[in-house]
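Dear support,

I submitted the protein below through the web form. The confirmation email said the job was done, but the results page showed an empty box. After a refresh the structure appeared. I'm attaching both so you can tell me whether what I see now is the final result or a partial one.
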Amino acid sequence: MGPIGETGYVARHAIGDAMAERGFQPLTVAEALTTAGGLLRPGTDVAGIGRYRWSRARRLLPALAAARFTGLVPADAIAGPSGRADLLRELAALPPDDARAAITRTLARLLAAVLHSDPRTWIPRGP
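What the results page shows now:
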């Protein structure tokens, strides 16, 4: 289970923001309990609950690249920008057309992951 931000160790030590910066976004108690209820099914050997920014977490914990985590950590979760500010700096350094293309590729990759499809088959269209 990922960190729960409203109680326990995370709340006592006020480390929720620090955990989120490192890729481990704290859950609320309600989120954890609601999700856990859906995971308690016959035949489920292992289950987990959490919101992770895997690229950040892999930078902090290189062991997440090990084979034993392949079923958990997405293959494309490479160490990338450390946050919104880094991403904005990278985009600002690009010519406008290249920045738009980078944003389009990123959005296509994220949407394709949600839709279980290949982003290379998508044809971006302007407004």
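Response: this is the final, complete result; the empty box was a page-load delay. Helices lie at 8-12, 16-21, 29-39, 54-60, 84-92, 96-115.
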